[in-house]
Design brief:
The complex is a heterodimer. By secondary structure, chain A is an all-alpha fold. Helices cover 78% and strands 2% of the residues of chain A. A two-stranded antiparallel ribbon of chain A has the order 1-2. Chain A starts with a helix and ends in a 7-residue tail after the last helix. The mean pLDDT of chain A is 85. Chain B starts with a helix and ends with a helix. Chain B has helices at residues 2-27, 31-53, 78-109, 114-122. Chain B is mainly α. The chains are: A mainly alpha, B mainly alpha.
């Protein structure tokens, strides 16, 4: 039963729980947070189960409302989408587990229930994007997640509302460009089903209006995933938003747009024509490479820890874009692996900043000092582990995705990309070691001691620690992940 | 040239509207005007889809007893209309979220003008 309905379950579960929130809020104050956390855990299980199922038995097609695909909306669970569903469920489960107190502090007593409802709608949108097999449906889910995202990112201070409004304007332009692109595709092919469109385009190839459609779609998704020249909304939004919102949106929001890019670029739009006539992959590769360097350099220049992490997100999106642009099996593996690795490490790092804020330490890097490692040993250790992974030192997970990207560039013969990846890792080391040095090598005056009452709640440290440790698990388990799960999802190159 | 404008004038007007909306969203200094630009932009896209559905001499996509179902060409394409219902709902929701964010911004800064807000924020 579960296997049969697998593609629809994550989306429906999140939507249903979002609707239950007002009732849950009436019953008990803490219930919305618990329910949201439970929902995400179940979705993670569903994703893992689906990954196992689809890797062995092939993709599951689900006809919504029993309407057959070219006309009706189709949901698909294949290894790639199950992988993303798992990532969404698992990462958001840890973040939601961590969220209870920081939400209460950041958005205030009465807004807790609406906050969780929007967070669940956000996750419903994300899992819809990865689950759908219909181009227009993808737009609708993109907008569901975006609208809930603006709400989640904009609550709290007026500053957050302002940056969220700016994001809304840019995000709407992105989504509308995508919609315009679909309109042109619809005019050309007369279909919106991904498989159908792919088959028609394979026969007809690219004519001038399809080229326009491809450009619109790529620009739209580029804005959504914050690819380099279109990334300007990102740093402000991530810096000003409440801690939990950033930890929820930063690891996942841009990744699902990257998923849409992977899906459309390799499987829906005609691959050969894109690669040879339009050279789309080369363009994305170049933008990604510039983004990696630019993001890292900007991150070095920041003093606000959250802002630094936001710029480093721009750089990490660059890695995924590079993996997409390489258009080789290793590049693809690197991109997909980097999605989950970066989701886990960014979530972990933003939870660390949330912990620091909770303890009243502020997030200015200059203000950090070595007494931190005594007062918050777990948080500091998590930060160290996640930054090691970000820099790409083995055995943490970040090393392996970079390794596959390097293999991909070697395969492609693009030495420039290899140089870019190595240099950016050094730049990453610069800005993370700057923080680590303050935490671990600075002088500790021992005068302040942590009072028992101001200890970090156990749930918060446990969820941060779990994310940090799963980086090691991902690192050591990368062979299994790549051979068992990512290899079956490779599209034909 | 005249043939071109004759055949595509509706599309040209639609893209003109699109540029007007984009201009409003990106270059207007007042945030409410930005939202107005956004609605114009979305209206242009909705219009674009409706134009796709239009057929010379086609009738509304409701079954007509005098036209047999084999003559599908006599009907306009109903699919874009149905899609745009969803897009309109999305657009309305976006404007709603945008305005409610603006209420928060106005409450915090006492203005909706970009320059004044930047002055306020840099204080």
């Amino acid at each position: 039963m579960i296997a049969q309905h697998l593609p629809a379950l994550p989306i429906l579960l999140y939507l249903f729980l979002a609707l239950l929130m007002p009732l849950a809020g009436k019953i008990a104050r803490g219930l919305p947070a618990t329910l949201a956390w439970l929902g995400s855990t179940v979705v993670a299980c569903l994703g893992g189960y689906g990954l196992w199922l689809t890797a062995t038995q092939g993709p599951i097609h689900y006809e919504m409302g029993n309407w057959a695909p070219p006309i009706g909306i189709e949901l698909i669970a294949d290894p790639l989408s199950c992988f993303f569903t798992f990532a969404i469920g698992a990462v958001s489960a840890f973040v939601l587990l961590h969220s209870r107190e920081s939400v209460e502090r950041d958005v205030g007593g009465r807004s807790i229930m609406p906050y969780y409802a929007s967070a669940l709608l956000l996750l419903a949108g994300f899992s819809g994007i990865v689950g759908t097999g219909d181009l227009f449906n993808l737009y609708v889910f993109l907008e569901i997640s975006a609208l809930a995202g603006y709400a989640v990112l904009g609550c709290g201070s007026p500053k957050a509302a302002l940056s969220s409004f700016r994001y809304l304007i840019i995000g709407t332009i992105g989504a509308s460009f995508y919609l315009l692109g679909i309109g042109l595709l619809l005019a050309n092919t007369g279909s919106l089903n991904m498989g159908d469109v792919a088959e028609i385009l394979r026969v007809t190839g690219l004519d001038s209006s399809t080229v326009l459609a491809v450009v619109f779609i790529l620009v739209g998704l580029g804005i959504k995933m914050a690819l380099l020249p279109l990334h300007y909304w990102l740093p402000d939004v991530y810096t000003n938003a409440p801690a939990t919102s950033t930890a929820l949106v930063a690891p996942l929001g841009t990744k699902v747009a990257a998923y849409a890019l992977l899906r459309l670029g390799y499987e829906v739009l005609p691959y050969e024509a894109l690669a040879v006539d339009l050279r789309v992959f080369d363009v994305v590769l170049a933008l990604g490479a510039v983004g990696i360097i630019w993001g890292s350099v900007m991150a070095i220049a920041q003093d606000n820890l959250k802002r630094m992490l936001a710029y480093s997100s721009v750089a990490q999106i660059g890695y995924i874009a590079v993996g997409f642009g390489l258009a080789t099996p290793y590049g693809y593996i690197g991109a997909v692996l980097h999605v989950i690795n970066h989701a886990v490490m960014k979530a972990c790092l933003f939870l660390v900043t949330a912990n620091l804020e909770r303890q009243g330490h502020g997030i200015s890097i200059k203000g950090l000092n070595a007494s931190l490692r005594r007062k918050m040993p777990v948080t500091c250790a998590c930060f160290a582990l996640a930054s090691i992974s970000m820099i790409g030192l083995p055995p943490a997970a970040g090393f392996f995705s970079k390794w596959y990207l390097l293999l991909g560039s070697y395969e492609q013969g693009s030495w420039a990309i290899i140089v870019v990846i190595v240099i950016s890792s050094l730049l990453n080391a610069v800005y993370f070691f700057r923080v680590l040095e303050k935490m671990y090598l600075g002088k500790d005056d021992e005068s302040e001691t942590a009072s028992e009452s101001s200890r970090l709640p156990i749930v918060m440290s446990v969820s941060t620690l779990a994310l940090a440790l799963s980086l090691l698990v991902l690192g050591f388990g990368n062979v299994v992940i790549v051979s068992k799960f990512i290899s079956p999802m490779l599209p034909g190159f | 040239m005249t043939v071109f404008f004759g055949d595509y004038s509706a599309y040209l007007m639609c893209f003109l509207l699109l540029t007007v909306g984009l201009y409003g969203m990106l270059l207007k200094r007042n945030y409410v005007k930005k939202v107005i630009g956004m609605t114009v932009f979305q209206a242009a896209i909705i219009l674009f889809f409706i134009l796709l559905a239009y057929k010379e001499g086609g009738t509304v996509p409701v079954k007509d007893p005098t036209i047999s179902l084999e003559q599908a060409d006599a009907y306009m394409n109903p699919l874009p209309h149905a899609l745009m219902l969803t897009a309109i709902v999305v657009g309305v929701a976006t404007v709603g979220v945008a305005l409610s964010l603006l209420i928060r911004v106005y409450g915090g800064y006492g203005s909706l003008d970009e320059e004044k807000i930047q002055q306020e924020a840099s204080k």
